[in-house]
Specification:
Blueprint (H helix, E strand, L loop, with lengths): L2 H13 L12 E6 L12 E7 L9 H10 L9 E5 L14 H8 L2 E6 L13 H7 L3 E4 L4 H8 L4
Parallel strand pairs: 3-4, 4-5
Antiparallel strand pairs: 1-2, 1-3
Helix pairs in contact: 3-4
Length: 158
Amino acid sequence: MSQDLIYMSLALEEAKKCVATPTAFCVGAVIVLPRGAEGNRKDKDIILSTGYSRELPGNTHAEQCAIEKLIDDELPPLNSAVIYTTMEPCGERLSGNVPCVDRIIRSGIFRTVKVGVIEPDTFIKDNAGKQKLEAAGIRYVHVNGLERECLEAATRGH
C-alpha cells in the first residue's frame, strides 16, 4: 500500500469518529510532516495532527480541527506539511465560518493538500477550493483508491 493510501486510510478512520448528521459531511484529516521536509530530522514521516468533522465545539470541519489542534503545539516550518483529507476542503461555508481552504492558505505551513474524494454539490455548488489552493501555490492531489469509502463515510446519516 502506498504512503498516500496509508495516510488517507488514517484520515478515513478519523472520519468514522464523526457523529453522523443529515446536514453535514463526515470528514477526516491527517497533517503529516514528510521525511526530508524542513524541520523533520527523523528518517520517517511525522504525523503532526488529526481531526474530524465536529470534533471541536461549534460547527467545525476536519481540516479546521486538525489545524487548530496543531496550533496549540509547535508549528512546522512554512510550506513543509501535507494535509490528507477524505473530502476536498471547503472553499465556502454556508455557516459564514472561515472556509477550510482559507485556513490552509493562511496557516502558511502546507505545501500539498491530498484529497480522497471531490466534494459533491449537496450543500455547495462548484467548490472553488482547488483553484484557490493552486493560486496560492499549494499543490492539490487527488489520491486514487479510496473514493468509494471516503464518499460513504462522508454521507453517513444522509
